[in-house]
Amino acid sequence: MGLLRFSTAGESHGEALIALVSGVPAGVPAEQAFIDRELWRRQQGYGRGGRMKIEHDAAHFLSGVRHGRTIGSPIAIQIANRDWQNWQEALPVEAGDQAKHKPVQSPRPGHADLAGALKYNFKEARYVLERASARESAARVAAGAVCKLLLRELGIEVLSHVVTVGAASLADAAVDFQKLRELAGRDEVLLNCAVAETEQHMKEEVDRALRTGDTVGGVFEVVAHGVPPGLGTYANWDERLDARLAGAVMSLQAVKAVEIGRGVAAAFAPGSSVQDEIGYNDEQQGGFTGFTRKSNRAGGIEGGVSNGEEVVVRGYLKPISTLRRPLGSVDFATRQPVKAAYERSDVCVVPAAGVAAEAMVAFVLAREALNKFGGDSLGEMKRNFESYLQQLKGY
């Protein structure tokens, strides 16, 4: 089995998004309802814009799945853009009528508009917006859902919750994983916060931004439960698990910082209050080994290797760049000062970003699991995994 990898294609207002996933072993259940539920979760959250009222994301398998299971070949997933019907004349594949094009004449501060136009020598930013948009993350969620289904076969789950929105923040972000399961199972999503009172304060932050024509960012936390020790390595810099997770989450639109465990607070604390003390209990039930920890400030990773505790990754999301009260910019054609372009947009996307980050974390963990346990089929991989668990038990 080759290296697990995925790529996406498609534009925000194009006909569809495509996720192409290769390296998945044969025999993994490809549950349509699970994948569609993940796509639905990405669309939810208080503060989402009008686009989410148009789209009803669903995965359509084009290849790599037959009779409900993966077959070892590349998996192609299509997610239709319903808004395409409103943009066919403005963004046709063929030459079309240039008069119907909808140019982005003034770049938005904080968006890829100006940097992208300079890089590709575009005279305005429409094509930059179309690909740089966070709409692309829907395809990542579909790919990540396939990875989650693979991890589930190994007893590994990946979920998220919101820690901060604007000035509202959880006093204690140590949330039991069962609570995260409950949050993920809700049929109505507000801000995906584990504490109702704090969630209400977060809603007030979104309302304040909405009233003033502004946007608001925050912090999400992704937790991977059931990760065994031994994923990743300290042997090479680019194979360290924390480095790969940080890069994957940082690649999401609007994420400007990534934290593993309590890495930020650790930088300001003495070592004696940062490290996770080790104990041993040979009668321990349910763990991978008899080794115990009093805390998990390292976020489940030490020296670039998973240590058997929950893997915890935080993403720091800046406010969305598209403002209803636009900031100053410059017209591409005249170079004169104007207000930045505005298109229909969100006020807050922190819960949705958390779901997209789950997908990225799931992808990295699935790739590391395949690197360690191998297997062209799910059965072969699980046999290797079970053998490794026995090795840990006998250590």
Topology of this structure?
Elements: E1 5-9, E2 16-22, H1 32-43, H2 51-54, E3 60-63, E4 65-66, E5 69-70, E6 75-80, H3 113-120, H4 126-132, H5 137-152, E7 157-165, E8 168-169, H6 177-184, H7 196-211, E9 218-225, H8 241-250, E10 255-260, H9 263-266, E11 278-280, E12 291-293, E13 301-302, E14 305-306, E15 311-317, E16 328-330, E17 337-339, H10 350-373, H11 378-393
Helix pairs in contact: 1-5, 1-10, 5-10, 8-10
Rg, Å, rounded: 22 Å
- From the spread of the alpha carbons, the general shape counts as globular
Q: Secondary-structure element sequence?
A: EEHHEEEEHHHEEHHEHEHEEEEEEEHH
The average pLDDT value, as a whole number, equals: 95
Query: Main β-sheet, in a few words?
Result: 5 strands, antiparallel
Strand content: 15-25%
Output the CATH topology. Answer: Chorismate synthase, AroC fold
Helix content: 25-40%
Question: What's the total helix number?
Answer: 11
Query: Class in CATH?
Result: Alpha Beta
Beta-strand segment tally = 17
Name the CATH homologous superfamily.
Chorismate synthase AroC
How many angstroms does the end-to-end distance come to? 29 Å
Task: For the largest sheet, list the strands in their spatial order.
Answer: 8-7-9-15-10
CATH architecture descriptor name: 4-Layer Sandwich
Q: How many distinct folded domains?
A: 1
Regions with little confidence, pLDDT below 50 for 5+ residues: none
Helix-strand category: alpha+beta
